[in-house]
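chain below, 161 aa
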Amino acid sequence: MELFANTKTLVPIDFSEHSVDAVATAIQITSNENVYLVHVVDPAQLYGFDDNGGYELGGGLDATHFNWEGAPEKEQQHKDAAIATLRREFADPKYHGVHFDAVVDEPAIGITEYASTNGIGLIVLPSHGRTGVERRIIGSVAERVIRLAHCPVLVLRNHVS
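prediction:
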């Protein structure tokens, strides 16, 4: 795909096998120096508001009674830990030159805002293969990224066994 040979390409990483495969695809499309890996830390899960990846307050916690003191430090610790994990997971020389980052935000918004802010020209992400009722109940990050992104999005279809 020579069209994207010099394009800054974002690959959101959730450390699943499918997202690691998306890194390989991004490297094939462009050079390592143009590949940006970002892990999005969901604040709902970070602060224990829910256990299903949603962004609403759940479990009886009320945001008005939550102690937000120390939140910036907690978020920075999780971002630093995510970047350290990215560096470890992608330490192989074949990833030399790839960029690593982490943000705290709802996944689709974090991905698209990172892309917009950092001049990304292509987003490559897996679909995770959810279909039917499961996709409607859980929601689809890939689907939301497609709707919110300012740039082209390449969604890699994953087959469910």
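The chain has one domain: 2-156. The radius of gyration is 16 Å.
thats it, cya
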